[in-house]
Design a protein that fits this description.
The protein is of the alpha/beta class. The chain has an eight-stranded mixed β-sheet, sandwiched between helices. Helix 11 links the parallel strand 17 and strand 18. The chain starts with a strand and ends with a helix. The model has no long low-confidence stretch (mean pLDDT 91).
């Protein structure tokens, strides 16, 4: 942790750390023109850009060859910041992610409704990769409500058999013996209603908890490619007549599970089976709207009005760009969320902050993290119990 001007501190870090940082996340002043309890947030655009340029250049130099720079910003300076980062980092290395940061409720909606305006609910992450936007490890997120297209149950197979089938499907170097084993498993399928699978009366609805628990043996049908249908037509003629399903392997080594009972005179019958447990989660893409942004007052045990970011957001950013033991740096440390999350996730971190909140917020917060007292934010999700430590510097210490 470094207490002092971040430009001076970043200059002092160049000799030791150039090319070593895996992830830089910064949440700089948004230049809104407002004054907050811990900092002023108003500069003319040119001065704001002049403040940002040297810092971005120094941060970019600190990154490893496969590192990432992530800058969070709102509408006020997004366009200018994007152009500046395109100049420093090259536009082909940039990606913009939109993050939902507010709900369309509360007192902020009164003037919107009164004057017919539009509520501001989102902010931006401008992501720059030293080697481009690649090598990210984005966790999939749960889908919303259950997709009612998945309404066919698969009886007479075990969870372990289904796991074996999935492993064969995912293995593009599968052998003839693997294909035979996959057919043997599919041949045991008994396709039935969910009510029958659940062993309930048909009028008793199957609830969502049961559906998710049994997603491994729930499927839907969909149409397939002409090539896959032709392969299915040919293979079906050779199958045991009692088999309900079978697999076909395409020339591209994709393996599809097909149901036996279909009209082969139709051009695109719905014969391919999709497994519900493969579709319970989705990739978050470039629009993140699933992270809770309300009720964050207790996170980290510090109050930082309109400035504290959700620990869950930093968990996703750090998780997708780093591995345990990597370095994470935040040059506008604010309330210390980046350091708290990085520490809980087993990453090494550097925080730089010049404001009084370095003593009032960062130090107490990180001490609670180290001591295991802080059980807010992502603590339970990552099983945080405390441990580790950190050192406190001023920029002068870096030049000694």
């Amino acid at each position: 942790m470094i207490f002092g001007d971040n430009l001076v501190a970043l200059c002092g870090l160049q000799a030791e750390l150039t090319g070593t940082i895996q992830c830089v996340y910064i949440d700089p002043p948004y230049n809104t023109g407002n004054t907050f309890p811990h900092y002023r947030d108003g500069l003319v655009h040119e001065r704001w850009l002049s403040m940002m340029r040297p810092r971005l250049e120094l941060l970019w130099a600190l990154l490893r060859d496969d590192g990432f720079l992530v800058v969070q910003i709102d509408d006020n300076e997004f366009a200018r910041l994007y152009l500046l980062m395109a100049e420093i980092c090259q536009e082909r290395n940039l990606k913009v992610i939109v993050v939902k940061m507010a709900e369309p409720t509360g007192v902020k909606m009164a003037p919107v409704v009164k004057h017919g305006g539009i509520a501001r609910l989102k902010e931006y992450l401008i992501l720059a990769g030293k080697a481009g936007i690649r090598g990210l490890s984005l966790e999939r997120i749960p889908k919303g409500a259950w997709d009612n297209e998945y309404r066919i149950g698969v009886a007479h197979v075990t969870r372990d058999e289904m796991r074996q089938l999935k492993e064969i499907i995912g293995n593009k170097t599968r052998t003839a013996a693997d294909l035979q084993h996959a057919d043997a498993i599919c041949g045991k399928f008994a396709l039935t209603s969910l009510e029958a699978l659940c062993q309930r009366a048909p009028e008793s609805p199957v609830n969502e908890a049961w559906l998710r628990e049994n997603a491994w043996r729930i499927v839907r049908t969909c149409a397939t490619t002409a090539v896959a249908k032709r392969l299915a037509d040919q293979k079906r003629l050779t199958l045991n007549p009692h088999a309900s399903a079978f697999v076909v392997e395409t020339p591209q080594h994709k393996l599809y599970v097909m149901k036996r009972d279909y009209d082969d005179q139709r051009a695109q019958p719905r014969i391919r089976l999709l497994f519900a447990d493969d579709y319970l989660t989705v990739h978050p893409g470039d629009f993140w709207q699933d992270i809770k942004t309300t009720g964050l007052g207790d996170e980290g045990g510090v109050d930082f009005t309109n400035g504290k970011k959700p620990e869950a957001l930093l968990k996703r950013i750090i998780g997708m760009t780093t591995q345990p033991g990597d370095w994470v740096l935040d040059a506008f440390a604010g309330s210390g969320t980046t350091g708290a999350v990085a520490h809980k996730m087993g990453r090494k971190w550097i925080l730089i902050e010049s404001g009084v909140q370095c003593q009032t917020h960062l130090l107490p917060r990180l001490r609670r993290v180290v001591d295991g007292i802080d059980q807010s934010g992502i603590s339970r999700a990552v099983g945080w119990k405390g441990g580790g430590g950190f050192r406190y510097f001023t920029p002068a210490d870096l030049t000694e």
